[in-house]
């Protein structure tokens, strides 16, 4: 991965995100300029997934800018791999494991072209990397939670991206699959990629990530894991909702004032 | 013809037709309130189609239209529909709407075929099924206490009374289940029975409406008044009452309009219901589209005025410090309009170097700048932001802070009198 | 030897019926294929709102042009169907009304408006107006050869477009957020799929009528889903089921003219579904029942 000299890989500049008109993320300023395993940690409903989705253009920004390699996301989509949450999908959908992984190659194929030999080989390799080569033909509903998550990961691998963005990949996944997934992510990190992961578990966060950002409706702290995951910071993040931001959010939504 | 003769002509046929439609509308609106609030509008749609074979079978078995056997047949068909939909979901993996779509279209088709095949023995015809024959209702009568009362009216009254009694008796349970079925179940409410009761009520309301407005327009009577009422109130019992009033009003107006325009009464009633709904979507205060646009416009105007006041304040602060006043950005049209309005309302006045704040203007500008700088202090303390990133967020948040919140922020960041940039925070006026 | 008197008219009728049957079969096939994506997207009944609204467009087209040619009426129906869908989207976005209630409102009110117009036309005795009622429950007996050819062409074009966009449609139907994040214009593709459903709903009006045409885009796909776990197979099977249903309806309706075509088509489709529901391997009720018994024995 060769970012233009001086450009950070991923930069959030004064980012505010709203659902409807109600801000849920306030003025986040975050710069990631080195590859590695980067975790986004925070309590439920703190806006971690929202931040990710805003970066990928899935939610519009109410303020600020987000750039990858100094460019807007739309220009560099091909270099960003995405692993969404498992709930976003109907697992009863009539597609097989290899069908899903092939979807990762669609971005490079473009309109109307069908996947060919090269795409199928790539999909096969990705499946092998996550240890699912033997279930390639199975309908996706017939997999365990961990296997389903690995299918999503294989799909992202098939995108052959420089930055990988994962939304709660370890939620509801058995320990063995978690280890497997973490292994693949470490390989990506060692190969010089940036892997950004929204994660819910503090304990494993301390073990797995090089750097973390603590989010609770705003950026609380960011940096090396050991420096950031201090008791004071954790208290600032986890000890109770910031009522002020809730109230303010309502006022903004209604175009009025707080009390 | 005079108004009175309109209603008394032909044995009062118009009056009876309107009364029947109104009665049907009342019953449907009552049931529809619960259906809409429980997100069961689709079930209402399904049941109104699916009762047809039940009605046909009952009539073939000797039941009189609108009689007890027909009501039973309809209820049986309704329950069958719901059961089939659930079965398709659990055993066939079909989504809710797909299962309902399969079930009610099939049953309705079955009903139509039965009606057409048994045309000689049944008094229904497909047109009647689809849009009712309200105009003919007054001609099929039973003598009650010496008065010729239309049979359909009787059915509608009986059904309405049953529904009203059932609603009053079980209202609290219905509301609880509608609001939170899980909590209701945990609290011991027989949720399955309550829901089944609602389905039975829907079937009855549908049958009562069948002859008047037909299968599909019954859906309009079930769903639309309740949806309109929901826009007007958030209390369930008020929604129920309002929806009944709206439904009855639509029945009366629709019938009269249809008579004037020489067209189907059922269709017109549905159109009137739609107009009521649309009017509320557009015109309700607070939620209506017009209200929201006005709110948006007013807010934008308030922001423009406050921004101009704050700009004046800052210019005067810079001048007072003795620094050179920076070349101002050329004011836009909006800025000029805001300046004009501020001048008219006595908050700024013409001075040697442009606009100057009056006492009133200064008071309001103090508030805006105070909000801005307090928010910068709060952000500086709570969020990891560099100094030069504090201004843009404060620029738009300053318009949303009220007095109490400002005091809270001040208390929290300490009673300092300067923001992170070292500039003075004006005190609370 | 000269042909017996009456054979030639018989042959002519037969030819027309054949063409009509082909046209309706094409519609059945296309409706089945295109309906698959509505069902897979969990939006099975969006087509219903459009279907009930077509009546308004048909009536208005008749009033505006004074003509009862099928193409004219169908274009009117298509426009009103699209308007109804547009209104539905606006209601969902701009009002507090829940989605299911909004669909029911659009469906029933637009149908009411359609009935008002058709009934008004009939009551005023406008020549040609009486036939509009046939759009309620379908009536293929009145189709001309030209009409059938038009329907077949529209159906073929719709299927072709879907096949060309198959991978994009499958991607968006399966995981729209991944599709959006990888650069696909999800809203545009969604819009195309909805348009195709609207087209087929309108094309199906002669065969099934406004009230029941939604069954043509819902029942064959859910029946096909029972038999397969792959999208291409599902599309093909759904198309075949659609053809069979449509042809059954047309055939019975030709033999018993007073029966409207729509209900017969739907019953045929429902029968196919019922059989699929019970008999299909893996997903069928019988197969699952046997699996459960086998589990219990262990």
Element layout with pairings:
The complex is a heterotrimer of chains A (259), B (429) and C (298).
Chain A: E1 10-19, E2 22-32, E3 36-41, H1 48-55, E4 61-68, E5 71-72, E6 80-83, H2 97-102, H3 106-109, H4 117-129, H5 145-158, E7 163-167, H6 175-190, E8 194-199, H7 202-208, E9 211-215, E10 219-224, H8 225-228, H9 231-238, H10 243-253
Parallel strand pairs in A: 3-8, 3-9, 6-7, 7-8
Antiparallel strand pairs in A: 1-2, 1-4, 4-5, 9-10
Helix pairs in contact in A: 4-5, 5-6
Chain B: H1 3-37, H2 41-60, H3 68-92, H4 96-117, H5 126-131, E1 141-144, E2 147-150, H6 151-179, H7 181-186, H8 191-232, H9 236-261, H10 265-283, H11 289-321, H12 333-344, E3 348-351, E4 354-357, H13 359-382, H14 391-397, H15 403-413
Antiparallel strand pairs in B: 1-2, 3-4
Helix pairs in contact in B: 1-6, 1-8, 1-9, 2-3, 2-4, 2-8, 3-4, 3-8, 6-8, 8-9, 8-10, 9-10, 11-12, 11-13, 13-14, 13-15
Chain C: H1 7-40, H2 46-65, H3 70-94, H4 99-123, H5 134-137, H6 145-164, H7 166-174, H8 176-181, H9 186-203, H10 205-225, H11 231-255, H12 261-279, H13 285-297
Describe the structure.
- The complex is a heterotrimer of chains A (259), B (429) and C (298).
- With 259 residues, chain A is an alpha/beta fold.
- Chain A has ten helices and ten strands.
- Chain A has a single domain (10-253), classed as P-loop containing nucleotide triphosphate hydrolases (Rossmann fold, 3-Layer(aba) Sandwich), CATH 3.40.50.300.
- Chain A has helices spanning 48-55, 97-102, 106-109, 117-129, 145-158, 175-190, 202-208, 225-228, 231-238, 243-253; strands at 10-19, 22-32, 36-41, 61-68, 71-72, 80-83, 163-167, 194-199, 211-215, 219-224.
- In chain A, a hairpin with a 2-residue loop joins strand 4 (61-68) and strand 5.
- The model of chain A has no long low-confidence stretch (mean pLDDT 89).
- With 429 residues, chain B is mostly helical.
- Chain B has two domains: 16-284, ABC transporter involved in vitamin B12 uptake, BtuC (Orthogonal Bundle), CATH 1.10.3470; 292-413, Winged helix-like DNA-binding domain superfamily/Winged helix DNA-binding domain (Arc Repressor Mutant, subunit A, Orthogonal Bundle).
- Chain B has 15 helices and four strands.
- Chain B has helices at 3-37, 41-60, 68-92, 96-117, 126-131, 151-179, 181-186, 191-232, 236-261, 265-283, 289-321, 333-344, 359-382, 391-397, 403-413, and strands at 141-144, 147-150, 348-351, 354-357.
- A two-stranded antiparallel ribbon of chain B has the order 1-2.
- In chain B, strand 1 (141-144) and strand 2 (147-150) form a beta hairpin.
- Chain C is an all-alpha fold and 298 residues long.
- Chain C has a domain at 8-211: Orthogonal Bundle (ABC transporter involved in vitamin B12 uptake, BtuC), CATH 1.10.3470.10.
- Chain C is 80% helix and 0% strand.
- Chain C is built from 13 helices and no strands.
- Chain C has helices at residues 7-40, 46-65, 70-94, 99-123, 134-137, 145-164, 166-174, 176-181, 186-203, 205-225, 231-255, 261-279, 285-297.
- The longest helix of chain C has 34 residues, at 7-40.
- The model of chain C is unreliable at 6-12 (pLDDT under 50).
- Chains B and C meet through helix 2, helix 3, helix 4, helix 5 and helix 8 of B and helix 4, helix 10 and helix 12 of C.
């Amino acid at each position: 991965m060769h970012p233009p000299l001086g450009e950070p890989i991923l930069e959030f500049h004064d980012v505010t995100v709203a659902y409807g008109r109600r801000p849920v993320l306030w003025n986040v300023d975050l710069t990631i300029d080195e590859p590695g395993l980067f975790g986004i940690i925070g309590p439920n409903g703190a806006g971690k997934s929202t931040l990710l989705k805003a970066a990928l253009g899935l939610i519009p920004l109410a303020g600020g800018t987000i750039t990858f390699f100094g460019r807007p996301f739309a220009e560099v989509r091909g270099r960003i791999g995405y692993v969404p949450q498992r709930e976003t999908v109907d697992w009863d959908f009539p597609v097989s494991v290899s069908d899903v992984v092939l979807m990762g190659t669609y971005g490079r194929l473009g309109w109307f072209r069908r996947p060919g030999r090269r795409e199928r080989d790539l999909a096969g390799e990705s499946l092998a990397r996550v240890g699912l080569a033997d279930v390639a033909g199975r309908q996706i509903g017939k997999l365990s939670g961990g296997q389903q998550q690995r299918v999503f990961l294989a799909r992202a691998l098939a995108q052959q991206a420089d930055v990988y963005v994962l939304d709660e990949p370890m939620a509801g996944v058995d320990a063995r699959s978690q280890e497997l997934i973490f292994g693949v992510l470490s390989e990506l990190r060692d190969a010089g990629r940036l892997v950004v992961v929204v994660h819910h578990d503090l304990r494993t966060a301390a073990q797995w990530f090089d750097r973390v950002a603590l989010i609770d409706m705003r950026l609380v702290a960011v940096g090396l894991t050991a420096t950031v995951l201090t008791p004071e910071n954790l208290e600032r993040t986890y000890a109770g909702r910031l009522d002020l931001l809730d109230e303010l959010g309502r006022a903004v939504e209604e175009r009025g004032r707080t009390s | 013809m005079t108004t009175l003769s309109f209603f008394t002509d032909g044995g009062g046929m118009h009056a009876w037709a309107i009364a029947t439609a109104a009665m049907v509308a009342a019953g449907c609106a009552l049931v529809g309130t619960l259906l809409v609030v429980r997100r069961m509008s689709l079930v209402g749609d399904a049941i109104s189609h699916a009762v047809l074979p039940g009605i046909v079978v009952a009539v073939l078995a000797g039941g009189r239209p609108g009689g007890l056997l027909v009501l039973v047949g309809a209820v049986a068909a309704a329950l069958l529909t719901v059961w089939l939909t659930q079965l398709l979901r659990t055993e066939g993996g079909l989504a809710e709407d797909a299962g309902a779509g399969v079930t009610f279209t099939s049953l309705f088709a079955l009903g139509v075929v039965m009606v057409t095949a048994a045309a000689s023995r049944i008094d229904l015809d497909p047109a009647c099924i689809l849009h009712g024959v309200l105009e003919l209702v007054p001609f099929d009568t039973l003598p009650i206490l010496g008065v010729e009362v239309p049979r359909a009216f009787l059915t509608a009254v009986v059904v309405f009374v049953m529904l009203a009694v059932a609603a009053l008796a079980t209202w609290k349970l219905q509301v609880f289940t509608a609001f939170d079925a899980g909590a209701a179940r945990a609290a011991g409410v027989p949720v399955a029975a309550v829901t089944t009761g609602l389905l039975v009520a829907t079937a009855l309301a549908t049958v009562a409406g069948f002859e008047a407005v037909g299968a599909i327009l019954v859906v309009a009577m079930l769903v639309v008044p309740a949806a309109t009422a929901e826009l007007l109130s958030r209390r369930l019992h008020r929604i129920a009452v309002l929806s009944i009033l709206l439904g009855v009003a639509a029945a009366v107006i629709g019938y009269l309009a249809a008579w004037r325009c020489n067209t189907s009464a059922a269709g017109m009633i549905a159109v009137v219901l739609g107009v009521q709904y649309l009017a509320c979507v557009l015109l309700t205060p607070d939620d209506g589209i017009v209200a929201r646009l006005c709110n948006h416009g007013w807010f934008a105007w308030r922001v423009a005025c406050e921004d101009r006041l704050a700009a004046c304040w800052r210019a005067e602060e810079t001048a007072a410090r003795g620094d050179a006043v920076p070349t101002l950005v050329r004011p836009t049209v909006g800025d000029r309009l805001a300046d004009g309005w501020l001048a008219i309302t006595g908050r700024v006045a013409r001075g040697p170097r442009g606009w100057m704040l009056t006492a009133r203007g200064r008071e309001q500008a103090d508030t805006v700048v105070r909000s801005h700088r307090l928010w910068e202090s709060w952000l500086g303390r709570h969020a990891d932001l560099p100094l030069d990133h504090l201004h843009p967020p404060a620029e738009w948040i300053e318009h949303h802070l009220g007095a109490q919140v400002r005091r809270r922020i001040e208390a929290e960041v300490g009673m300092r009198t300067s923001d992170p940039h070292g500039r003075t925070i004006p005190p609370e006026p | 030897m000269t042909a017996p008197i009456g054979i030639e008219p018989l042959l002519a009728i037969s030819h027309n019926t054949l063409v009509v049957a082909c046209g309706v079969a094409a519609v059945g096939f296309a409706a089945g294929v295109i309906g698959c994506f509505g069902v897979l997207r969990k939006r099975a009944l969006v087509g219903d709102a459009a279907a009930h609204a077509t009546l308004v467009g048909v009536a208005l087209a008749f009033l505006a042009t004074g003509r009862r040619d099928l193409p004219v009426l169908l274009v009117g129906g298509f426009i009103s169907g699209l308007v109804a869908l547009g209104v539905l989207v606006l209601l969902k976005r701009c009002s507090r009304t829940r989605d299911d209630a909004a669909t029911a409102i659009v469906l029933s009110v637009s149908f009411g408006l359609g009935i008002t117009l058709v009934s008004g036309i009939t009551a005023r005795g406008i020549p040609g107006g009486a036939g509009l009622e046939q759009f309620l429950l379908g009536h293929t007996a009145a189709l001309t050869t030209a009409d059938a050819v038009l329907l077949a062409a529209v159906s073929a074009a719709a299927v072709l477009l879907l096949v060309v966009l198959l991978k994009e449609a499958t991607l968006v139907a399966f995981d729209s957020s991944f599709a959006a994040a990888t650069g696909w214009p999800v809203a545009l593709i969604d819009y195309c799929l909805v348009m195709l459903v609207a087209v087929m709903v309108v094309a199906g009006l002669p065969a099934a009528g406004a009230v029941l045409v939604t069954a043509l885009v819902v029942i064959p796909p859910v029946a096909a889903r029972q038999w397969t776990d792959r999208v291409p197979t599902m599309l093909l099977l759904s198309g075949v089921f659609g053809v069979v249903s449509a042809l059954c309806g047309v055939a019975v309706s030709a033999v018993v003219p007073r029966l409207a075509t729509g209900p017969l088509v739907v019953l045929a489709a429902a029968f196919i579904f019922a059989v699929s529901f019970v008999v299909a391997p893996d997903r069928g009720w019988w197969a699952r029942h046997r699996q459960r018994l086998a589990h219990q024995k262990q």
